[in-house]
Fold this protein.
Amino acid sequence: MANIASTTTTHQATGPVSYKGEGFKNGAIQALLWLNAVIMLYPLFVMVMSSFKSNAEIFSSPLALPQSLNFANLEKVWSETNFLQYLGNSLLVTSASVALILVVGTMAAYAIARYEFRFSGLWLMFFLSGMTVPLKLAIIPLFLQLNALNLLNTYAGLILVYTAMGIPSAVFIMTGFLRALPKELEESARIDGANEFVIMWQVMLPLARPAMVIVAIQNAVPIWNDFFFPLILITSDSLKTLPQGLTVFMGEFVTDWGVLFTGLTLAALPITLLYILLSRQFIAGLTQGAIK
């Protein structure tokens, strides 16, 4: 009886302490997450608020709220610049590049992950080697090659460069995800008379949708924000993408910072909305990949 009483007393004494320790740990983690969110979102908040300010107000009170909602900067962006054209160019280049990355990367990953053939591991290493060499280091031979193919100053040349950059990571992500899918699914589909294309399109790819969302977002964000390759490969004003087009707001001696911040806010809006719409599937893909 004494041992039982002592055990019960010990359990009662240690139970609340451990519970309080877990609560403190969870609270500390939540506080760190909130702090990280504030650090990440505050510059965006300042950018949006600065889009409603004049140059004088930005320099006098850069971190304060705007005195009034002034839409003069927005009117300048829409009426005095080619913002819509730059936006359309970025949408075209980004959507076409991501589509090609998904198609080529998914087909290559499906073949490596679901079929047994010689040197499959070597092919995977071949694709992964593309992640080790930054393409910007090869800008001179790349420029000469595109010039020989008459692809300089074209959408096609820029899209092909972005596609080549995104395929290695797409194959890496999709191969790991597709390998984790059970073989019984495709075997049962073959028994029902489905061909290989139907198995891939109607059975496997719907299950791999979270991984495809990860690939899409991971490639869409850097392509949308890229300034380097359009600067080197695009010279016509009518073909400039949004990051390159925003440089027209910056003069040699005077910069209209209010208009520039408005352009940056409008440029960040589409990709932010895309992430919000796909965030649930993006997080689901990350957690499923971690579990597998």
Summary: The chain has a mean pLDDT of 83.
